[in-house]
Amino acid sequence: MQPRGRAATTRRRLPLAEPVNGRQPRDDDGVAGRVTDQAEECFLEMVTADPTVAAVLERAPALGVGDWWLTAGILFQTVWNTVTGRQAGTGIRDADFFYFDEDTSWDAEDDVIRAGAALFADLPVPVEIRNEARVHLWYADRFGTPAPAFRDCADAIDNFAAVCCCYGVTVDGDGRFRVYAPHGFDDLFSLTVRPNRRLAPRHVYEAKTERWQQQWPELTVLPWEDGRAATPHA
Predict the structure, then answer these.
(1) pLDDT per residue over 118-174, tens digit each?
(2) Is the dihedral of CA 181, 185, 186, 188 positive or negative?
(3) What is the CB-side half-sphere exposure of residue 54 using CA atoms within 13 A?
(4) Is pTM, for the whole model, over 0.85?
(5) How many CA atoms lie within 13 A of 129 on its CB side?
(6) Quick one: which of 178, 211, 218, 220 has the most CB atoms within 10 Å?
(7) What angle do CA 119, 120, 126 make, to 5 degrees?
């Protein structure tokens, strides 16, 4: 199932070398990398074939928030399900929806969360909406380590616990898909889980990978020591 409307008919592939929010995506060595259009097209075809992904991407512009991205498990786990031949939605608990608003008040974020709850009420998993400008206010209480104030949603996506989590899809003002994939697609398509030791602590990575490997035993999970402390964007 593809998103209806313009996002379905005017889809544009965004090469990795094209900056997102003024920053250049990079490969794991900190050097700007370019994946083939074919890899990105394959990724988009897989994720937009999922009905929940398609519905969120179609409806999200109605929230009226800037710099928004569908991200994390709803994307990479959809690819895992496709590669391993599982039914759509298998193992997916929620859909992470990031947006960025410099108004860091709880009331402002709560207004968006409530609007999203109504907009996405019929979907099979909850859409978890978070203003990434507020994350540093609560991250330490939840995960036991402080987080810097993110500059935008791409900055937040860069800080996921594993490299395979670092994906985002949005729809621009012309109804075209845009993809953020700072590490490329090799780990994702090869079912490799590699730690991203930039922010999330070890116990978060290990708890997540334990559950993932139970759900998708085909995964190759690399130990924490094999991760790299990713270099921030220039």
Answers:
(1) 999 999 999 999 999 999 988 778 888 878 889 999 999 999 999 999 999 999 989
(2) positive
(3) 16
(4) no
(5) 25
(6) 178
(7) 145
